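ugh ok so i messed up the first submission bc i forgot one of the chains. this is the corrected input, ALL of the components this time, i swear. 276 residues overall. if the numbers dont match what u have on ur side tell me asap before i send this to the collaborators (the ones from the other lab, u know who)
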Amino acid sequence: MMTIGEAARASGVSAKMIRYYEETGLIPAAGRTGSGYRTYGPKEVQILRFVRRARDLGFPMEKVAELLALWRDRDRASADVRHLAEAQIAALDRRIREMQEMQATLSHLVRSCAGDDRPDCPILDDLGGHPGEPARPA
Amino acid sequence: MMTIGEAARASGVSAKMIRYYEETGLIPAAGRTGSGYRTYGPKEVQILRFVRRARDLGFPMEKVAELLALWRDRDRASADVRHLAEAQIAALDRRIREMQEMQATLSHLVRSCAGDDRPDCPILDDLGGHPGEPARPA
DNA sequence: GCTTGACCTTCCCATGATGGGAAGGCCCAT
DNA sequence: ATGGGCCTTCCCATCATGGGAAGGTCAAGC
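and heres the new structure output, hopefully the right one now
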C-alpha cells in the first residue's frame, strides 16, 4: 500500500489531481489509514494510469469516465469502446481542421505582408475588419 | 454613439465580454453618459471587431493585446506584426501535430479492436498501461 | 523521548474566457 | 406614469489544474 504521493509518482497523475478525481467521482474514494491518509494499491495505480493515458489522448473527463466504466465491466462489447475511440478521433479531426483553417488564413495574410521595416502590414487591416472604412483606432 | 448592446451586435463581441475586456485593460475604458451607460462610436466598434477577428484566428488574449498595440501605433514596422502572425502559425502547428499524434495512436488502437459484440477490446488494455500486469480494476 | 523534515489532510484562491443571473437604475414610447 | 427593454454592478459557475496556508502524522536521527 502506498501513500498518495507514491501513487502520484507511479501513475504520473499529480496528488492534487488524484484528490480532485476522487472528489468528482471519476475514481472511487481511496481507502484510508487510521490517521486519515489515503492508501493506494497496484490496482488503483493502474486506474490512475488509465486516466492519465486517456487524458493524454485528448479524451475529455466525461469520456474518460465512460471508458473507465467500460473497463470496469469487461463483459461490455468491444464495439462500445471502439465507438468512443472513433468519436474521439472525429472530435480531434474537427479541431484540427479548425486550426488548419486559422493557419491558412494567417499564412495568406503573412504572404501579403512585406515584413520589412516599413509600417503598414495588411494583416492589421484584415483584423480591423472589412465592413467599415479603415479608420485608425484611438 | 451607441450603447454596449448595439456595439455588441455591431462587433460580434458579447456585452459581457466587452466589459471583461475593459476590466482587464485589453481595451480602454469606454466613455460614459451622465447616467453611467457606456458609449461606443465607430472607432471603438472597429477595435472590438479587431479583437474578435484575432480571437477567431486563435490568438490568445495576450497576443491580441500585442497586436492591438501594433495597430494603435501604425509607425511600427510590419515585421513585428508578421512575426506575431508567424509565431501564431507555429503555435497552431504544434497543437495540430499533438492532436494528430493522438489521432494516430487512437487509429492504431481502433484497428486492433474487432468492434463486435465480444468483450475484450485491446484499446482498454492499452489504456490500462503496459508497465503492469493487466489486472482488472476493482 | 524529542526534534526535524518530509509528507499528509482540508480549505481557499487563481487561472482564461465565457456565460448566467439577481438586484437595482435608466430611457423611451404609449 | 407605467411597462418593457436596456443598462449598471456584483457574484457564481464552468474545466482541469496548480499554489499555498494551517495543521496533523510519520519516520529517522540523536
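quick check: The longest strand of chain A covers residues 31-32. that seems consistent at least. Confidence is low (pLDDT under 50) at residues 131-138 of chain A.
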